[in-house]
Amino acid sequence: MAQINPSILSADFARLADEAKAVQGADWLHVDVMDNHFVPNLTLGVPVVESLSRATKTPLDCHLMIEDPDRWAPQYVEAGAGSVTFHVEAAAAPVRLAREIRAKGARASMALKPATPIEPYEDLLPELDMLLIMTVEPGFGGQSFLDIMLPKIRRTRELISKHGLELWLQIDGGVSASTIERCAEAGADVFVAGSAVYGAHDPAEAVRTLRSLAEQATASAPWACAH
């Protein structure tokens, strides 16, 4: 089943609790943590995640676009995140970090920037609960979807199937009603959507529409039929 994770990067930061309530039908709330070092933008950190986890029943999906995630990622689990994603480009010991995140009770996820290939990390996949393929360069919301990422999504889905893993495949960047179907067809099953949700007149309805489009595309996708 397709999962829709609205990104609060596109929400009103002065009204985060209300913005979380506006998408209560979402599967997860995607929280972009940026440190102005790994990416050229600064957003929020542990205290905000801690407050947000108390303000919503929707589980938090924290995407850490930060340096030294080996040090910081466990603190986001302690702050209330149900899933924590670190970038493989920034992690010193990704397997150890994934195991630590899991040991603390959260889902462990690893992200790849657009230029980072999946193949060198095939052996790491069993250590993860989710893999995130960035479909824009990380750092800013509202960017256009990179179609050149579709083959990478397909190759990743093939690796997941090859190993028989129950691994979620998330995409983040430029997800909208006009792009979500081809991503689902390629193999993605978790979709981060920012402006497509929070820029809509009715964010909750936008979530339902995106989920419906993704599920229709998945139903006829070769990878889903084989699964």
From TrEMBL:
The encoding gene is rpe
Q: What does this protein do?
A: Catalyzes the reversible epimerization of D-ribulose 5-phosphate to D-xylulose 5-phosphate.
Family of this protein: Belongs to the ribulose-phosphate 3-epimerase family.
Keyword vocabulary terms for this entry: Carbohydrate metabolism, Isomerase, Metal-binding
Q: How is the cofactor bound?
A: Binds 1 divalent metal cation per subunit.
Active-site residue numbers: D32, D172
Q: Does the keyword Electron transport apply?
A: no
Q: What is its EC number?
A: 5.1.3.1
- What is the protein's name according to its record? Ribulose-phosphate 3-epimerase
- Which pathway does the database say it acts in? Carbohydrate degradation
* Annotated positions binding a divalent metal cation: H30, D32, H63, D172
PANTHER family associated with the record: RIBULOSE-5-PHOSPHATE-3-EPIMERASE
Q: What Pfam families does its record include?
A: Ribul_P_3_epim
- TM helices/strands, residue ranges: none
Q: Which reaction(s) does its UniProt entry say it catalyses?
A: D-ribulose 5-phosphate = D-xylulose 5-phosphate
| Residues holding substrate | S7, H63, G139, F140, G141, G142, D172, G173, G174, G194, S195
Q: Which cofactor does it need?
A: Co(2+); a divalent metal cation; Fe(2+); Mn(2+)
Which first-to-last residue range defines the signal peptide? none
